[in-house]
UniProtKB/TrEMBL annotation:
Keywords, comma-separated and alphabetical: Oxidoreductase, Peroxidase
InterPro entries for the chain: AhpD-like, AhpD_core, CMD-like
Name of the protein in its database record: AhpD family alkylhydroperoxidase
Oxidoreductase found in the keyword field: yes
GO-annotated molecular function: peroxiredoxin activity
Species of the source: Leucobacter luti
Length: 145
């Protein structure tokens, strides 16, 4: 089965995700996070997740905000360079910690038993659950009996 455009299969879920993204950006702005740092975080997370579309998008957005080519070039090894402030290093380190809950893609599930709509719905559920997982882990939710 080819990839399913889940934003077209369930546009209402996509719109809610977009609203969540806008709320996160508003919270960053309200917290005084520099817009260039917001783009660096988005770009670094996209690099870690291997999303070429988002890497391109957020590189362009960072450049439009005045980010330098040198800093973008060393972003994959930010901890090894002297280009980033302590605040930027902290933000990038946090973003990496939150992001590195990945597993290599597997396709054993592709046995023809799921419709494209089901593939889209399950994909959205996994995306949303991943977000909740990260919220719970990062927030230190207790798992005691």
């Amino acid at each position: 089965m080819s990839r399913i455009n889940i934003s077209k299969q369930h546009p209402d879920v996509y719109q809610q995700t977009a609203a969540l993204s806008q709320a996160a950006e508003a919270a960053a702005a309200a917290a005084g996070v520099d817009p260039k740092l917001v783009e660096l975080v988005k770009l670094r997370v996209s690099q870690l997740n291997g999303c070429a579309y988002c890497c391109r998008l957020h590189t362009r957005d960072a450049v439009e905000l005045g980010e330098t080519v040198d800093r973008l070039a060393v972003l994959p090894a930010w901890w090894e360079s002297q280009y980033f402030s302590e605040q930027e290093k902290a933000a990038l380190g946090l973003a990496e910690e939150v992001t590195r809950l990945s597993v290599p893609e597997r396709s054993e599930w592709e046995n023809g038993s799921l419709t494209p709509e089901q593939v889209s719905a399950i994909t959205w559920l996994a995306i949303v659950m991943g977000a909740w997982n990260r919220i719970a882990i990062r927030s230190g939710y207790r798992v005691a009996p």
